[in-house]
């Protein structure tokens, strides 16, 4: 099967790994061309298609359709294949709950993992202790919500009894969080999360293909 399009990104972008997992579940192929952040995303050609110069960015095979924003790309790829009704939900209530979790993953997990990584790992923003502490508190609160939804490890999936975009979105957000930020201390309030993530990875070969082995940090990143 010919690729449905291209997705532009830097390496090991969890948002893109999520999209590629969805594509694989739907039997679709997406090309991932070589791409250098700070160079390729600043060219006139790229900015003409994606004015903010951000990734991930998707372009259809014939060049007639473009998308930015990871969640929009994930939904699109989920919606154009045979797994659409499972991944996105078969009725309005289920679709709404799945969308709720996808938004939550971006706004409550990723949004509270990014600040410390930008300040400490990538040195792209000035260090701010108040922001660091607030991000930790908000991330821990988000983990508690996931724990509650998993019912102490009794549930394998967040919505219904099968894999959906809700799980793929939360998994991809947690993948980065647990590597650098959600440490042993933070996960005390959400002890089911590790088992949830390992269970998904074991059960879904498409996840294993696109995500490397899980890493659970003992101590969150700190300013030296």
Describe the structure.
The chain is built from ten helices and three strands, in the order βααββαααααααα. A hairpin with a 5-residue loop joins strand 2 and strand 3. Helix 1 packs parallel to helix 3, helix 1 (14-25) packs antiparallel against helix 7 (165-180) and helix 5 (92-121) packs antiparallel against helix 6 (129-150). A three-stranded antiparallel sheet has the order 1-2-3, with helices on one face. It is 54% helix and 5% strand. The mean pLDDT is 97. It starts with a strand and ends in a 14-residue tail after the last helix. The protein folds into two domains: 5-85, Glutaredoxin (3-Layer(aba) Sandwich), CATH 3.40.30.10; 89-210, Up-down Bundle (Glutathione S-transferase Yfyf (Class Pi), Chain A, domain 2). By secondary structure, it is mainly alpha-helical.
Q: Can you tag this structure with a few keywords?
A:
three-stranded antiparallel sheet; mainly alpha; 224 residues; 2 domains; Glutaredoxin; Glutathione S-transferase Yfyf (Class Pi), Chain A, domain 2
Strand order of the largest sheet: 1-2-3
Q: From the 3D structure, determine the CATH topology of the largest domain.
A: Glutathione S-transferase Yfyf (Class Pi), Chain A, domain 2
* CATH architectural arrangement of the largest domain: Up-down Bundle
Structural class: mainly alpha
Tell me the radius of gyration: 18 Å
Which blocks of ≥5 consecutive residues have pLDDT under 50?
A: none
What's the structural domain tally? 2
Domain GST C-terminal: 91-221
Domain GST N-terminal: 3-85
Protein name: Glutathione S-transferase
Family: Belongs to the GST superfamily.
